[in-house]
Amino acid sequence: MNGPFQTEQQLTAAVLPVEFEVLSPPPLLLPGEHLDHYQALRQAIFADLAPRSAIEWLLAIDVAELSWEIQRYRALRHKLLETYRQKAIEALLRRIDMVGIAPEFEDQAEYYTLQNALSWRIDPMAAGEIDARLASYGFDAHAITTEVYVQAREILVLFESLLNGAQTKRMLLLREINNHRFAAPLRRRQVEHT
Fold first, then answer.
1. Which of 68, 101, 121, 129 is 20 to 30 A off residue 52, Cα-Cα?
2. Which contacts qualify for 119-128: CB closer than 8 Å, 24 or more apart?
3. What is the pLDDT of residues 113-153, one digit of tens each?
4. What is the pLDDT of residue 24?
């Protein structure tokens, strides 16, 4: 998909043949995903690859599905970072608010810390106040982001491996399509010369 952007008319040029529809059912969508987004991505890939044979169509279907998975992993990773940002706020608020708390009040202080972190996430005014309070203790946006990555490091490694695996598979499929295209004329020439 490194070529120039294609118009809607060009994108409809490579339509999945009816006999392959059964091999390319729509994916199971997660909340927030839209079938029309998947179909647009799939159609753009089909138009870009312009499959010429059954094998190329099968490979193009796999490329489209892997591309959808890659987009999904990226969106989920983004949501994950948002969730861990709230956890980072919780951790930093604990460092400020829990210092010197008597053991008998720790549970109540923890409850309020969790409530403050939730307020930070859903209430812009509370977020501004909490950000200012954190900044007064030296926790700026970079410190918060660092805390996010420290807390999310293991799950981020998982997402990185999912992304890398899907991207590697996609590159192998694209290479296979190219190999198939270059091998077909060679096979025809070999048949003609024998």
1. 68
2. 120/86, 120/89, 121/85, 121/86, 121/89
3. 999 999 999 999 999 999 999 999 999 999 999 999 999 99
4. 83
Task: Give CA–CA dist 181/121, Å, rounded.
Answer: 52
pTM (2 d.p.): 0.75
Instruction: Select from 49, 68, 71 the least CA-distant residue to 60.
Output: 49
Between 152 and 20, name the one with better pLDDT.
Answer: 152
Of 171, 183, 188, 180, nearest to 53 (Cα)?
180
Calculate ∠ Cα 5-14-34, nearest 5°: 70
Closest alpha carbon to 131 in 123, 140, 122, 142: 140
